[in-house]
Design a protein that fits this description.
By secondary structure, the chain is α/β, with parallel strands linked by helices. Helix 2 packs parallel to helix 12 and helix 4 crosses helix 6. Helices cover 42% and strands 14% of the residues.
């Protein structure tokens, strides 16, 4: 079991004089830290780290995420959302798919926006979103109205997660064209232009290459002003991250070997258009496929690794390797191991995590409860 180092790394230096944090006190500064007597400089460093960590605690958000394509019933999704609300998760998220694979004839896949609308009426405080809506499946003018309606039903609790679409098997089965990725990205950007216009103007007109509207009325408007926060999923460097810089309130990335590079690319795109990089929220899809799991019990962890390797169809050692890959800590293990991973990600600037847990019903709820108690309260 690996744990994150929390020791200060400053060189040992001593002084016999008081010192101050802030401007020269003679200049009238009111932010003064007076430490009389002998002072170890690493004390100040560790204190500043504690302050930063405290600020992070105030800002970091966690949501739960489900994949309707795995077969959830509505009652199962509702139970997960209500328990997440009780446990203090900021949000409930679902993917936007039509079915899982070629063997899914009898497997449920709840339609994403219908699910959000139903949950909006049966929850009170938890926010709701898609990770992420596929642009191709709904005309943007209709989607703008659907989203505004869900924002009204939920009294302003909608996250608008969006993407260009990728799952070719669904497109083909449902009769949607599946153009090249460059075209799908063009379509997504035009769609976002239209959606934002419909959310903010009384009767906008827009004529694009792929979509057009003319004097389109769209009431109700969203409760949130100027509109629900927009989250764009994906890490494509040329188009997706550029679209994040232009349109989104949040990016949504994944743990990969190139994660830090993706953030650097996003920073470059922000600089190109004169946007403050820090104004883009950083969210991460913490899927740890097939789910994140934490426990303090060795036997329970052993049983989980056995089940996990069976689900993945890989040897136990490979399942462990996958859970530990690409970042410090792990998606599975003791609280210290998961805390190490999330603290590393927070250190990169991420302040929002959509977490996937294994199971469809009580097993999912039990895992989300353990995570809230053993990880969320540490961060």
């Amino acid at each position: 079991m690996s744990t994150a180092s929390r020791s200060g790394g400053a060189a040992t230096r001593w002084t016999a004089n008081p010192f101050y944090l802030g401007a020269n006190p003679k200049a009238g500064s009111t932010l003064i830290l007076r430490l009389p007597g002998v002072v170890h400089y690493s004390f100040l460093l560790n204190m500043l780290r504690a302050i930063v960590k405290g600020l992070s605690r105030m800002k970091v958000k966690f949501g739960v995420h489900i994949e309707p394509q795995l077969g959830y019933t509505y009652s199962q999704a509702l139970a997960i959302a209500k328990e997440a609300e009780r446990l203090g998760y900021e949000s409930f998220w679902c993917s936007d798919h039509l079915f899982l694979n070629q063997n899914s004839a009898e497997q449920n896949c709840l339609e994403a926006w219908t699910l959000l609308a139903a949950l909006a009426a049966e929850t009170e405080t938890i926010r709701l979103g898609t990770t992420v809506t596929c642009n191709s499946y709904r005309h943007p003018s209709l989607l703008a109205k659907i989203a505004a309606s869900v924002d009204m039903i939920s009294n302003g609790r909608l996250w608008f997660g969006y993407g260009a679409g990728w799952k070719k098997i669904e497109y083909k089965a449902y009769g949607y064209d599946f153009p090249k990725v460059q075209v799908r990205m063009d379509m997504m950007e035009e769609a976002l232009e239209i959606i934002k216009l419909l959310w903010t103007e009384p009767s906008p007109t827009y004529k694009g290459k792929h979509y057009s509207i003319e004097n389109a009325f769209s009431a109700p408007k969203p409760i949130q002003k100027p509109h629900p926060p927009i989250l764009i999923g994906g890490d494509g460097e040329k188009r997706t991250l550029k679209a994040v810089a232009k349109y989104a309130d949040y990016c949504n990335l994944f743990v990969t070997p190139k994660l830090e590079r993706k953030l650097d690319v996003l920073k470059e795109h922000c600089a190109d258009i004169g946007r403050d990089y820090d104004s883009v929220g950083k969210s991460l899809f913490a899927q740890g496929w097939p789910g994140v799991f934490v426990s303090t019990d060795e036997e329970e962890l052993e049983l989980h690794w056995t089940r996990r390797s069976e689900i993945l169809g890989t040897p136990r050692e490979k399942a462990i390797e996958n859970a530990n890959a690409h970042a410090p800590g792990s998606w599975v293990g003791y609280p210290e191991e998961l805390t190490e991973r999330f603290e590393y990600l927070i250190g990169l600037g991420f302040d929002f995590f959509q977490v996937v847990f294994m199971g469809l019903s009580q097993d999912y709820i039990d895992s989300s409860k353990a995570f809230s108690e053993l990880v969320m309260k540490r961060i």
